[in-house]
Amino acid sequence: MKQAFLNIIGNALRFASSHIEIRMRKEESKVTVEIEDDGIGFGENPERVFDRFYTGDQAGSGIGLAITKTIVEKHHGEIYAENLKKGGRVIITLPLPPG
């Protein structure tokens, strides 16, 4: 999971204008992490940012967020990207261990 968060935060640092916000909330059986920035957002197809080799209009290899999605799913989690009025948000939901 460390690599997944490094990938997302690295992208936020690269594209943010001046503000990055990280929020976590715990519910009964899961934790949700939101990473939000005030950068350029994810373009017209935010759901595609996790596709291997998809770069949209930006420079990059297109594998960082694809790897991130694989890591999250191997931990039985879910990951989404969405555009904001100014910027973008990545939402990761992971199950909590029992007990």
TrEMBL record:
Residues 1-98 form the Histidine kinase domain. It catalyses: ATP + protein L-histidine = ADP + protein N-phospho-L-histidine. GO terms for molecular function: ATP binding; protein histidine kinase activity. The keyword Transferase applies. Keywords: ATP-binding, Kinase, Nucleotide-binding, Transferase, Two-component regulatory system. One of its GO terms (biological process) is phosphorelay signal transduction system. The keyword Kinase applies. InterPro entries: HATPase_C_sf, HATPase_dom, His_kinase_dom, Sensor_HK_Regulatory, Sig_transdc_His_kin-like_C. Its EC number is 2.7.13.3. SMART domains: HATPase_c. This is histidine kinase. It comes from Guptibacillus hwajinpoensis. The lineage of its organism: Bacteria, Bacillati, Bacillota, Bacilli, Bacillales.
